UniProtKB/TrEMBL annotation:
InterPro entries, sorted: P-loop_NTPase, Small_GTPase
Phylogenetic lineage: Eukaryota, Metazoa, Chordata, Craniata, Vertebrata
Protein name as catalogued: Uncharacterized protein
Keyword field: Nucleotide-binding
Keyword Nucleotide-binding attached: yes
Top-level taxon of origin: Eukaryota
Pfam families with a match to the protein in the record: Ras (PF00071)
Presence of the UniProt keyword Acetylation in the record: no
GO molecular function term, any single one: GTP binding
Annotated segments matching region Disordered: 42-67
Length: 79
């Protein structure tokens, strides 16, 4: 039952026994090695999705400078 449930839900399955310690150490070691691998895959997947998002399509916009028709006053001219 446990194996079919795990396969159905795309989960790992390891049968253990606390009574005689069957597969307890191996399960612990497997979990310790699988977690970083899963996290790394998730981060790469998230990064790929972010790279494909429209917010990363940057288009430069050039705005011409605004010129005013005021005559330029030289420094200290009105003293």
């Amino acid at each position: 039952m446990g194996t079919s449930l795990a396969e159905k839900n795309d989960l790992s399955f390891i049968e253990t026994s606390a009574l005689d310690s069957t597969n307890v150490e191996a399960t612990f070691q497997t979990i310790l090695t699988e977690i970083p691998h899963i996290v790394s895959q998730k981060q790469m997947s998230d990064r790929a999705e972010k790279d494909m998002s429209p917010s990363n399509n940057v288009v430069p916009v050039h705005v011409p400078p605004i010129t005013e028709n005021k005559p330029k006053v030289q420094c200290c001219q009105n003293i």
